[in-house]
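Support request from a user on the community tier.

User writes: "When I paste my C-alpha coordinates into the form, the page sometimes reloads and wipes my input. The last time it worked, I copied everything first. Here is what I submitted, just in case something in the input itself triggers the reload:"
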Protein backbone atom coordinates (compact mmCIF):
# COMPACT_ATOMS: atom_id res chain seq x y z
CA UNK A 1 0.00 0.00 0.00
CA UNK A 2 2.85 2.35 0.88
CA UNK A 3 4.53 1.77 -2.53
CA UNK A 4 1.25 2.52 -4.34
CA UNK A 5 0.91 5.77 -2.38
CA UNK A 6 4.48 6.78 -3.13
CA UNK A 7 3.97 6.04 -6.86
CA UNK A 8 0.77 8.13 -6.91
CA UNK A 9 2.57 11.02 -5.23
CA UNK A 10 5.41 10.74 -7.75
CA UNK A 11 2.99 10.84 -10.71
CA UNK A 12 1.22 13.85 -9.16
CA UNK A 13 4.55 15.60 -8.67
CA UNK A 14 5.58 15.01 -12.29
CA UNK A 15 2.21 16.27 -13.61
CA UNK A 16 2.40 19.41 -11.52
CA UNK A 17 5.99 20.00 -12.59
CA UNK A 18 5.04 19.67 -16.27
CA UNK A 19 2.17 22.15 -16.05
CA UNK A 20 3.00 25.39 -17.82
CA UNK A 21 2.91 28.56 -15.81
CA UNK A 22 1.66 31.67 -17.57
CA UNK A 23 1.94 35.26 -16.45
CA UNK A 24 -1.31 36.92 -15.47
CA UNK A 25 -2.73 40.39 -16.11
CA UNK A 26 -5.91 42.34 -15.51
CA UNK A 27 -8.54 41.85 -12.85
CA UNK A 28 -12.13 40.75 -12.34
CA UNK A 29 -14.64 43.43 -11.34
CA UNK A 30 -17.73 41.98 -9.67
CA UNK A 31 -20.81 44.15 -10.12
CA UNK A 32 -23.33 41.57 -8.92
CA UNK A 33 -22.98 38.54 -6.59
CA UNK A 34 -24.23 36.26 -9.38
CA UNK A 35 -20.88 36.71 -11.14
CA UNK A 36 -19.51 34.09 -8.72
CA UNK A 37 -21.65 31.53 -10.53
CA UNK A 38 -19.85 32.35 -13.79
CA UNK A 39 -16.27 33.09 -12.70
CA UNK A 40 -14.57 31.93 -9.53
CA UNK A 41 -13.37 34.83 -7.35
CA UNK A 42 -9.89 33.26 -7.47
CA UNK A 43 -9.72 33.05 -11.29
CA UNK A 44 -6.73 34.67 -12.99
CA UNK A 45 -6.43 35.98 -16.54
CA UNK A 46 -3.51 34.13 -18.17
CA UNK A 47 -1.41 35.35 -21.11
CA UNK A 48 -1.02 32.17 -23.17
CA UNK A 49 0.53 33.80 -26.28
CA UNK A 50 1.69 37.26 -27.33
CA UNK A 51 3.52 39.28 -29.95
CA UNK A 52 0.78 39.82 -32.56
CA UNK A 53 -0.09 43.02 -34.40
CA UNK A 54 -3.87 42.87 -33.89
CA UNK A 55 -5.38 39.57 -32.80
CA UNK A 56 -9.00 38.83 -33.65
CA UNK A 57 -11.65 36.21 -34.36
CA UNK A 58 -10.78 33.45 -31.84
CA UNK A 59 -12.34 30.05 -32.51
CA UNK A 60 -11.96 26.98 -30.31
CA UNK A 61 -11.78 23.69 -32.26
CA UNK A 62 -12.97 21.25 -29.64
CA UNK A 63 -12.20 18.06 -31.58
CA UNK A 64 -8.54 19.07 -31.87
CA UNK A 65 -8.26 20.98 -28.59
CA UNK A 66 -6.80 24.02 -30.29
CA UNK A 67 -7.54 27.70 -30.65
CA UNK A 68 -7.48 29.48 -34.01
CA UNK A 69 -7.23 33.26 -34.21
CA UNK A 70 -6.57 35.91 -36.86
CA UNK A 71 -3.79 38.47 -36.96
CA UNK A 72 -5.60 40.85 -39.30
CA UNK A 73 -2.71 43.10 -40.46
CA UNK A 74 -0.46 40.06 -40.95
CA UNK A 75 -2.99 38.27 -43.19
CA UNK A 76 -2.41 35.14 -41.10
CA UNK A 77 -4.32 32.72 -38.89
CA UNK A 78 -2.43 31.17 -35.98
CA UNK A 79 -3.22 28.10 -33.94
CA UNK A 80 -2.51 27.55 -30.25
CA UNK A 81 -2.44 24.33 -28.24
CA UNK A 82 -1.41 23.70 -24.67
CA UNK A 83 1.35 21.36 -25.81
CA UNK A 84 2.67 23.19 -28.85
CA UNK A 85 2.02 26.84 -28.08
CA UNK A 86 1.39 29.20 -31.00
CA UNK A 87 2.26 28.33 -34.61
CA UNK A 88 1.19 29.58 -38.06
CA UNK A 89 -1.98 27.87 -39.30
CA UNK A 90 -2.91 29.62 -42.56
CA UNK A 91 -1.49 32.37 -44.72
CA UNK A 92 -2.85 34.16 -46.67
CA UNK A 93 -6.03 34.20 -44.63
CA UNK A 94 -8.08 37.15 -45.87
CA UNK A 95 -6.41 38.66 -48.92
CA UNK A 96 -5.38 36.29 -51.69
CA UNK A 97 -4.48 38.87 -54.33
CA UNK A 98 -1.02 39.25 -55.85
CA UNK A 99 -0.73 43.03 -55.52
CA UNK A 100 0.61 44.15 -52.14
CA UNK A 101 -1.79 46.32 -50.18
CA UNK A 102 -1.85 48.18 -46.87
CA UNK A 103 -4.52 48.34 -44.20
CA UNK A 104 -6.03 45.29 -42.51
CA UNK A 105 -6.19 42.67 -45.28
CA UNK A 106 -6.41 39.43 -43.31
CA UNK A 107 -9.23 37.33 -41.97
CA UNK A 108 -11.19 38.58 -38.98
CA UNK A 109 -14.08 36.55 -37.54
CA UNK A 110 -13.83 32.75 -37.80
CA UNK A 111 -16.49 30.08 -37.30
CA UNK A 112 -17.18 26.43 -38.06
CA UNK A 113 -19.96 25.27 -40.38
CA UNK A 114 -20.38 21.54 -41.02
CA UNK A 115 -16.87 21.08 -39.60
CA UNK A 116 -15.40 23.45 -42.20
CA UNK A 117 -13.73 26.76 -41.49
CA UNK A 118 -15.65 29.91 -42.47
CA UNK A 119 -13.69 33.16 -42.65
CA UNK A 120 -14.61 36.83 -42.75
CA UNK A 121 -12.03 37.94 -45.32
CA UNK A 122 -11.24 41.65 -45.20
CA UNK A 123 -9.00 41.84 -48.24
CA UNK A 124 -11.14 39.67 -50.51
CA UNK A 125 -14.27 41.43 -49.18
CA UNK A 126 -16.29 38.29 -48.67
CA UNK A 127 -17.51 35.57 -46.34
CA UNK A 128 -15.79 32.40 -47.51
CA UNK A 129 -15.67 28.68 -46.81
CA UNK A 130 -12.27 26.99 -46.82
CA UNK A 131 -12.55 23.93 -49.05
CA UNK A 132 -8.93 22.77 -49.21
CA UNK A 133 -6.58 21.35 -46.60
CA UNK A 134 -4.58 23.82 -44.58
CA UNK A 135 -1.48 22.05 -45.89
CA UNK A 136 -2.27 22.71 -49.56
CA UNK A 137 0.24 25.08 -51.21
CA UNK A 138 -2.58 27.37 -52.34
CA UNK A 139 -5.72 27.28 -50.15
CA UNK A 140 -9.05 27.04 -51.97
CA UNK A 141 -11.90 29.23 -50.72
CA UNK A 142 -15.53 29.14 -51.81
CA UNK A 143 -17.43 32.43 -51.66
CA UNK A 144 -20.53 32.28 -49.45
CA UNK A 145 -21.40 35.94 -50.05
CA UNK A 146 -19.55 39.02 -51.31
CA UNK A 147 -22.14 41.52 -52.55
CA UNK A 148 -25.65 42.84 -52.20
CA UNK A 149 -27.77 44.40 -54.94
CA UNK A 150 -24.78 44.44 -57.27
CA UNK A 151 -22.51 46.26 -54.80
CA UNK A 152 -19.50 44.63 -53.15
CA UNK A 153 -19.26 44.23 -49.42
CA UNK A 154 -16.86 46.55 -47.59
CA UNK A 155 -14.94 44.02 -45.50
CA UNK A 156 -16.93 41.37 -43.60
CA UNK A 157 -15.87 41.57 -39.97
CA UNK A 158 -17.78 38.99 -37.97
CA UNK A 159 -20.42 36.35 -38.59
CA UNK A 160 -22.66 33.82 -36.90
CA UNK A 161 -24.74 30.96 -38.35
CA UNK A 162 -28.10 29.65 -37.15
CA UNK A 163 -29.43 26.10 -37.05
CA UNK A 164 -30.98 26.47 -40.52
CA UNK A 165 -27.70 27.48 -42.14
CA UNK A 166 -28.39 31.22 -42.41
CA UNK A 167 -25.30 33.39 -41.93
CA UNK A 168 -25.54 36.82 -40.31
CA UNK A 169 -22.63 39.08 -41.26
CA UNK A 170 -21.45 42.55 -40.22
CA UNK A 171 -19.74 44.72 -42.82
CA UNK A 172 -17.89 47.78 -41.47
CA UNK A 173 -15.19 49.51 -43.56
CA UNK A 174 -12.14 48.56 -41.45
CA UNK A 175 -10.61 46.30 -44.09
CA UNK A 176 -10.62 48.99 -46.77
CA UNK A 177 -7.28 50.76 -47.06
CA UNK A 178 -8.81 54.22 -46.52
CA UNK A 179 -11.62 52.98 -44.32
CA UNK A 180 -14.96 54.73 -44.92
CA UNK A 181 -13.32 57.16 -47.39
CA UNK A 182 -11.85 54.46 -49.61
CA UNK A 183 -12.70 55.01 -53.30
CA UNK A 184 -13.35 51.27 -53.65
CA UNK A 185 -16.23 51.42 -51.17
CA UNK A 186 -19.46 50.67 -53.05
CA UNK A 187 -22.21 50.90 -50.43
CA UNK A 188 -23.22 54.21 -48.79
CA UNK A 189 -23.85 52.41 -45.47
CA UNK A 190 -22.24 49.78 -43.24
CA UNK A 191 -24.58 46.82 -43.43
CA UNK A 192 -25.64 43.77 -41.49
CA UNK A 193 -26.63 41.02 -43.92
CA UNK A 194 -28.25 37.62 -43.92
CA UNK A 195 -27.01 34.99 -46.41
CA UNK A 196 -29.39 32.06 -46.71
CA UNK A 197 -28.37 28.47 -47.57
CA UNK A 198 -29.06 29.11 -51.27
CA UNK A 199 -26.67 32.09 -51.29
CA UNK A 200 -29.32 34.83 -51.36
CA UNK A 201 -28.08 37.98 -49.58
CA UNK A 202 -30.57 40.18 -47.72
CA UNK A 203 -29.85 43.53 -46.08
CA UNK A 204 -31.12 43.44 -42.49
CA UNK A 205 -29.68 46.67 -41.05
CA UNK A 206 -28.23 49.78 -42.70
CA UNK A 207 -28.57 52.25 -39.81
CA UNK A 208 -25.54 51.34 -37.65
CA UNK A 209 -22.42 53.44 -38.12
CA UNK A 210 -19.88 50.66 -37.40
CA UNK A 211 -21.50 47.21 -37.01
CA UNK A 212 -18.89 44.81 -35.68
CA UNK A 213 -19.37 41.83 -33.35
CA UNK A 214 -22.49 39.71 -33.79
CA UNK A 215 -24.14 36.88 -31.86
CA UNK A 216 -27.40 34.93 -31.64
CA UNK A 217 -29.30 34.15 -28.47
CA UNK A 218 -29.53 30.40 -27.63
CA UNK A 219 -33.13 30.27 -28.89
CA UNK A 220 -32.12 32.19 -32.05
CA UNK A 221 -34.92 34.69 -31.50
CA UNK A 222 -32.58 37.62 -30.84
CA UNK A 223 -29.62 39.01 -32.75
CA UNK A 224 -27.03 41.10 -30.91
CA UNK A 225 -24.77 43.53 -32.78
CA UNK A 226 -21.90 45.63 -31.41
CA UNK A 227 -21.35 49.12 -32.81
CA UNK A 228 -17.67 50.09 -32.63
CA UNK A 229 -18.15 53.84 -33.05
CA UNK A 230 -16.65 56.02 -30.25
CA UNK A 231 -19.57 58.42 -30.65
CA UNK A 232 -22.18 55.62 -30.45
CA UNK A 233 -20.43 52.83 -28.56
CA UNK A 234 -23.34 50.48 -28.01
CA UNK A 235 -24.65 46.97 -28.22
CA UNK A 236 -27.99 46.55 -29.98
CA UNK A 237 -30.56 43.80 -29.64
CA UNK A 238 -32.82 42.92 -32.57
CA UNK A 239 -35.79 40.55 -32.49
CA UNK A 240 -35.95 37.91 -35.21
CA UNK A 241 -38.89 36.14 -36.81
CA UNK A 242 -38.23 33.71 -39.67
CA UNK A 243 -34.69 35.15 -39.90
CA UNK A 244 -36.06 38.67 -40.46
CA UNK A 245 -35.73 41.57 -38.03
CA UNK A 246 -39.01 42.69 -36.49
CA UNK A 247 -37.79 45.10 -33.78
CA UNK A 248 -34.61 46.59 -32.35
CA UNK A 249 -33.32 48.58 -29.40
CA UNK A 250 -30.16 49.75 -27.67
CA UNK A 251 -29.11 46.91 -25.36
CA UNK A 252 -26.32 48.74 -23.48
CA UNK A 253 -24.47 52.01 -24.07
CA UNK A 254 -20.82 52.57 -23.09
CA UNK A 255 -20.14 55.76 -25.04
CA UNK A 256 -19.26 57.52 -21.77
CA UNK A 257 -16.27 55.18 -21.32
CA UNK A 258 -14.59 55.62 -24.69
CA UNK A 259 -12.61 58.71 -23.70
CA UNK A 260 -10.90 57.03 -20.76
CA UNK A 261 -10.76 53.29 -21.58
CA UNK A 262 -9.05 51.41 -24.41
CA UNK A 263 -11.27 49.55 -26.85
CA UNK A 264 -14.80 49.69 -28.23
CA UNK A 265 -17.77 47.30 -28.48
CA UNK A 266 -16.36 44.56 -30.70
CA UNK A 267 -16.66 40.77 -30.75
CA UNK A 268 -18.97 38.83 -28.44
CA UNK A 269 -20.07 35.30 -27.57
CA UNK A 270 -23.17 33.94 -25.84
CA UNK A 271 -23.08 30.69 -23.88
CA UNK A 272 -25.87 28.09 -23.63
CA UNK A 273 -27.31 29.79 -20.53
CA UNK A 274 -27.60 33.12 -22.34
CA UNK A 275 -24.64 34.79 -20.62
CA UNK A 276 -23.10 37.40 -22.93
CA UNK A 277 -19.34 37.99 -23.00
CA UNK A 278 -18.80 41.22 -24.96
CA UNK A 279 -15.54 43.08 -25.57
CA UNK A 280 -15.75 46.81 -24.99
CA UNK A 281 -13.98 49.79 -23.42
CA UNK A 282 -11.62 48.56 -20.71
CA UNK A 283 -11.97 44.84 -21.36
CA UNK A 284 -14.82 42.32 -21.47
CA UNK A 285 -18.37 42.99 -20.23
CA UNK A 286 -20.47 40.14 -18.81
CA UNK A 287 -24.27 40.28 -18.97
CA UNK A 288 -26.56 37.62 -17.54
CA UNK A 289 -29.48 36.13 -19.48
CA UNK A 290 -31.79 38.85 -18.12
CA UNK A 291 -29.57 41.57 -19.59
CA UNK A 292 -28.02 42.75 -16.33
CA UNK A 293 -24.35 43.74 -16.30
CA UNK A 294 -22.90 41.47 -13.60
CA UNK A 295 -19.17 42.01 -14.07
CA UNK A 296 -16.21 43.08 -16.15
CA UNK A 297 -12.92 41.47 -16.97
CA UNK A 298 -10.61 44.48 -16.85
CA UNK A 299 -7.81 44.25 -19.41
CA UNK A 300 -5.09 46.89 -19.96
CA UNK A 301 -5.05 46.48 -23.77
CA UNK A 302 -7.87 47.01 -26.27
CA UNK A 303 -9.93 43.82 -26.41
CA UNK A 304 -11.28 42.59 -29.73
CA UNK A 305 -13.15 39.30 -29.26
CA UNK A 306 -13.56 36.09 -27.29
CA UNK A 307 -14.35 32.39 -27.69
CA UNK A 308 -15.68 29.64 -25.44
CA UNK A 309 -14.38 26.09 -25.18
CA UNK A 310 -16.70 23.23 -26.07
CA UNK A 311 -17.64 22.56 -22.45
CA UNK A 312 -18.07 26.27 -21.71
CA UNK A 313 -15.52 26.15 -18.89
CA UNK A 314 -12.79 28.21 -20.56
CA UNK A 315 -12.92 31.67 -22.10
CA UNK A 316 -10.28 32.71 -24.64
CA UNK A 317 -9.81 36.43 -25.35
CA UNK A 318 -7.96 38.27 -28.10
CA UNK A 319 -6.60 41.60 -26.85
CA UNK A 320 -4.39 43.55 -29.24
CA UNK A 321 -1.03 41.73 -29.16
CA UNK A 322 -2.16 39.21 -26.52
CA UNK A 323 -4.05 35.93 -26.37
CA UNK A 324 -5.64 35.40 -22.97
CA UNK A 325 -7.35 32.55 -21.12
CA UNK A 326 -9.73 32.57 -18.18
CA UNK A 327 -11.18 29.50 -16.45
CA UNK A 328 -14.95 29.67 -15.90
CA UNK A 329 -17.19 27.72 -13.56
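"...and here is what came back when it finally went through:"
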Amino acid sequence: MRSVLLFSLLVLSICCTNQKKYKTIGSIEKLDPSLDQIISPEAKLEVIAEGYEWSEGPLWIDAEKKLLFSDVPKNTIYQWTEEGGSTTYLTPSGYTGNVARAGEPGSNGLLLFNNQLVLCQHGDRRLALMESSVNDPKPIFKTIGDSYDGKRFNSPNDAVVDAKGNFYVTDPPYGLVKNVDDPAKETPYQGVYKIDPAGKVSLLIDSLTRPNGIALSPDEKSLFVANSDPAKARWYKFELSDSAITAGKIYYDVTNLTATEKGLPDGMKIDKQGTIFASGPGGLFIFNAEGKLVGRIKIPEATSNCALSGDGKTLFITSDMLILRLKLK
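Agent notes: The reload is a front-end session timeout and is unrelated to the input. The CA atoms of residues 271 and 312 lie 7 Å apart. The first strand starts at residue 24 and ends at 25. Escalated to web team.
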